[in-house]
């Protein structure tokens, strides 16, 4: 169908890859009423991203992908990506402050979009490839990179507004170390659980009354070994007893 054609189209694949790589620039430009295609003016970055895209998808025998599937190299690339995330957040906040002086929400939003644009724009990127997965909306269920980028945007906005008593380079160092260590740990342990999960559960219960799914109530949800509940068994026994009494009366 049309979806398969769009998925297999090299042009659609390339454009979706560019959206994922430069999604932060696109989103931040839209927020600040700037041309969303401004990232195309950076020919060197486009050429580098296009080269990586071509080697990943069209290199013979998947040689390029297999090289980067080597764990130490993957850890190195993941660490470098987290370092660039910090720079993107700070650059987005400074850019937003130049347009809207001391506008906290604008700085947080633009810094968040600049640092996690690839995740926030993922639904539009999927549409370009002919795929629609609304359940993957990052605003409905945030992934760890989007969450940690939002926290970083808030922290750097407070520091930029001089409400956080810490030097900018010290905050960048501490935040980057946290990003790299947490990312490497999650990759080594192959864990998809966010480090913020316990804090999120506690805050959700405290402020919004969110609770875990209640356990099965005794007498109502307790099930037998064959999968039938206690209530179901009691009702079946009652019906069997009624049938037997009716049979005796007819006899």
From TrEMBL:
Membrane topology: Multi-pass membrane protein
Chief subcellular location: endoplasmic reticulum
Domain of life of the organism encoding this protein: Eukaryota
Membrane spanning residue stretches: 14-32, 39-57
Amino acid composition bias (Basic residues), ranges on this chain: 241-251
Keyword hit for Endoplasmic reticulum: yes
A Pfam family this chain is assigned to: TRIC
Polar residues bias: start-end ranges: 222-232
Subunit structure: Homotrimer; conformation seems to be controled by binding to diacylglycerol (DAG).
Entry's family note: Belongs to the TMEM38 family.
UniProt name for this protein: Trimeric intracellular cation channel type B
Source organism (scientific name): Charadrius vociferus (Killdeer)
């Amino acid at each position: 169908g049309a979806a398969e054609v769009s998925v297999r189209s090299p042009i659609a694949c390339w454009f979706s890859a560019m959206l994922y790589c430069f999604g932060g620039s696109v989103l931040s430009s839209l927020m600040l009423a700037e041309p969303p295609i401004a990232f195309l003016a950076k020919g060197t970055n486009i050429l580098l991203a296009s080269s990586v895209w071509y080697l990943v998808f069209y290199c013979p025998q998947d040689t390029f992908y297999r090289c980067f599937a080597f764990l130490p190299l993957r850890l190195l690339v993941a660490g470098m990506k987290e370092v660039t995330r910090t720079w993107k957040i700070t650059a987005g906040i400074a850019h937003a402050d130049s347009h809207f002086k001391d506008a906290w929400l604008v700085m947080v939003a633009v810094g968040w979009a600049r640092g996690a644009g690839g995740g926030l724009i993922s639904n539009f990127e999927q549409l370009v490839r002919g795929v629609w997965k609304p359940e993957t909306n990052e605003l409905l269920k945030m992934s760890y990179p989007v969450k940690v980028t939002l926290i970083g945007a808030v922290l750097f906005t407070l520091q930029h507004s001089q409400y956080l008593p810490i030097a900018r380079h010290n905050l960048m160092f501490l935040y980057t170390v946290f990003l790299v260590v947490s990312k490497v740990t999650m990759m080594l342990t192959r864990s998809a659980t966010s480090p913020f999960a316990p804090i999120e559960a506690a805050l959700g219960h405290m402020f919004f009354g969110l609770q875990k799914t209640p356990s099965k109530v005794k007498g109502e949800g307790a099930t037998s070994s064959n999968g039938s509940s206690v209530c179901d068994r009691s009702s079946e026994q009652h019906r069997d007893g009624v049938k037997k009494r009716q049979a005796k009366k007819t006899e």
